[in-house]
Amino acid sequence: MGSILIAMPKRNDANSIAEMLAANGLMMDTYICQNAADVLRNANNLDYGVVICTKNLGDMGYMELSEYLPKFFGILLLTKDAGLECRDNTVRLMMPFKPRELISSIEMMSSGYVRQIRKKKDIPIKKSMAERKVIDKAKAVLMERNGMSEPEAFRYIQKTSMDCGRSMSESAQMILMMTGDALL
After folding, report:
1. Which residue ranges form the domains of the chain, and what is each CATH number?
2. pTM
3. Helix 125-146 crosses helix 168-179 at what angle (to 10 degrees)?
4. Phi then psi dihedrals of residue 35, to 5 deg
């Protein structure tokens, strides 16, 4: 499953973006990173994804980071500077932006990586659909039993997966097992 790594100089900004993604129903594992080293550490353990960042991350800039990222990762650069140079794996999103622009950019980048990976590995679509169904069922259980809204249930699963170092589908399966609901 694809992942989103958010690396911003201010943790509050990164949290705001993560909340925006969750509130808009983006179904991807999301990780908040403190710096470029965190981004690289996480990216090397994941299949594919998008790094959302600004020009400088404290320990390196976005250009240097783009050189070290694994093959199926790209950078979504949030900037006010239209003149910044972008590499092949970098997409620039001008600030201020609307949530839909952010979501569309992530979806566009992710779908490109999915196509590339499937060509290489011939990964079946059924796995990602099965993962999505497990997450949706866990959200429904949380909404029914705990009175959560859909964004709250999604965020709970997302936070649990980040805290435990598991994928969202693994966390959703754990929730279903703990509540006694059958897996799909």
Report:
1. 3-121 (3.40.50.2300), 125-179 (1.10.10.10)
2. 0.62
3. 50
4. -160, -175
